[in-house]
């Protein structure tokens, strides 16, 4: 059984369906990439899983339990953590304060325990150590992304939903972010990764799905997607990856 199983998912904001019957599954321990052009419905898929899209139909299950109709807080408590597009780090809070916010789903956790866990997170994000007391507004894009990832992990998720973690970052920082994503999975967290950067996403993913205006264009292993002429032309810079 898949950890996350989506069947026949439709979603709409206004009149028109943005997702039109999507099927997608993520196995325990996998990194699955969700790719597609602007407006294809990638963020909507993550938002629907997190209970943030009011009008959905179809089925979304985590370890067999339906998430449809649940409040976001309950979905987080079950083990789904969402690192949103744009990172949403609070500019007036420190790095540590922002990261601690990610544990707000875990009732009764002591302050000292939280700080200890933040220290543990610094092991994955060594660049944040010296920035512990820096305010959000002073951080670079890469540093904001690290804070958003660390905050997402504070919920101790079974599955981490990542929306465009590489967006707007310099190439070297992008590589660093993807190394961290690979390490997060290695340490036991399943990842559903939305990306515009298909090349990088498929370099860490076990499988990928390509969305086109709310429906599935193709799915498969990275090498299958590399070799699909349609996908290659539209999403992979028109050339096969040298391997
Ligand atoms: N809050 C909203 N209200 C109305 N329409 C929306 C809303 N959010 C998204 N949409 C529309 O839904 C469609 C899918 O949007 P979505 O954000 O899921 O796409 P995406 O694949 O994440 O795109 P991008 O690569 O630009 O982030 C788009 O046509 C978008 O304009
Ligand atoms: Mg998006």
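Sequence proposed for the structure above (243 residues):
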């Amino acid at each position: 059984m898949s950890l996350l199983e989506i069947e026949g998912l439709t979603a709409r904001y206004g009149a028109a369906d943005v997702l039109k019957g999507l099927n997608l599954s993520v196995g325990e321990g996998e990194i699955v990439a969700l790719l597609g052009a602007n407006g294809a419905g990638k963020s909507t898929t993550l938002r629907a899983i997190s209970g943030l899209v009011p009008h959905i139909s179809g089925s979304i299950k985590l370890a067999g339990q339906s998430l449809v109709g649940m409040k976001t807080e309950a979905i987080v408590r079950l083990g789904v953590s969402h690192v949103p597009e744009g990172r949403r780090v609070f500019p007036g809070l420190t790095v540590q304060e922002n990261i601690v916010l990610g544990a707000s789903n875990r009732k009764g956790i002591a302050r000292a325990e939280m700080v200890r866990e933040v220290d543990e997170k610094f092991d994955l994000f060594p660049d944040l150590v010296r920035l512990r007391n820096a305010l959000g507004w002073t951080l670079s894009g890469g540093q904001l992304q690290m804070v958003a990832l660390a905050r997402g992990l504070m919920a101790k998720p079974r599955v981490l939903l990542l929306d465009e973690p590489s967006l707007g970052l310099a190439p070297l920082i992008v590589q660093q972010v993807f190394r961290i994503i690979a390490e997060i999975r290695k340490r036991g967290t399943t990842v559903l990764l939305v990306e515009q950067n298909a090349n990088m996403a498929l370099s860490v993913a076990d499988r990928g799905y390509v969305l086109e205006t709310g429906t599935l264009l193709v799915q498969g292993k990275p090498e299958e997607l590399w070799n699909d002429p349609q996908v290659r032309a539209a999403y992979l810079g028109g050339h096969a990856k040298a391997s």
